[in-house]
Design brief:
Radius of gyration: 23 Å
Oligomer: single chain
Helix content: 55-70%
Order of helices and strands: HEEHHHHEEEHHH
Number of strands: 5
Strand content: 15-25%
Structural class: alpha+beta
Largest sheet: 5 strands, antiparallel
Distance between the termini: 59 Å
Length: about 190
């Protein structure tokens, strides 16, 4: 049902934020997209309740964008993922503004949410196809080695540090040979 409603229109709905009282009011579809009870959001719920519906990797940025808008009164437009009531992770575009009083204190905000899941997924698939077609396994391995090295170097394990450095060095050497071969092939 949620998917059908979202498919009918890209616009999910509207929200309003009473900043001093920390009450967010939203349409039923907005509530469901954030995995909240529509009756509760119609009556007003806390910003933390909405934050809980944001994908864990996007929560900090979500709060920072709202904080920036409450401090400046500037419009904020940003994309993030939500974990909706039907268990689907969706991408939304959130556009809103927090009005400040004459003393610069945040008062009320309002905005709209737009479902951009399909366009975002299409972009990722396109990017993934291009990446897979153009990339050699050694290039992918180098990226993974860099990520592993970064994580390992946070640990107090000197042997693992050395091993991750050695692996990265060897992958780098093999990648260098591959690059040289590609250059020679391009010259011919």
């Amino acid at each position: 049902m949620l998917q059908q409603a979202l498919d009918a229109s890209d616009t999910i709905g509207q929200w309003e934020y009473d900043v001093p009282n920390d009450r967010v009011y939203a349409d039923a579809l907005v509530a469901l997209v954030f995995n909240l009870d529509p009756a509760e959001t119609a009556a007003g719920t806390s910003l933390d309740a909405f934050r809980a519906g944001v994908h864990p990797e996007d929560r900090e940025r979500f709060i920072q964008e709202i904080k920036r808008s409450t401090e400046t009164g500037l419009c904020c437009t940003f994309e993030y993922r939500v974990c909706s009531a039907d268990g689907v992770v969706r991408w939304v575009l959130d556009r809103g503004r927090i009005a400040l009083d004459k003393d610069g204190r945040p008062q009320r905000g309002n905005g709209v949410l737009i479902d951009i899941t399909q366009s975002r997924l299409a972009k990722q698939e396109e990017s993934s196809e291009l990446t897979c077609q153009a990339r050699h396994p050694l290039e992918l391995a180098a990226e993974h080695c860099l990520a592993a090295r970064e994580a390992i170097h946070e640990l107090p394990e000197p042997l693992l540090h050395t091993m991750s450095d050695m692996l990265l060095l060897e992958v780098g050497r093999a990648l260098s040979k591959l690059t040289d071969e590609r250059r020679r092939g391009a010259m011919n």
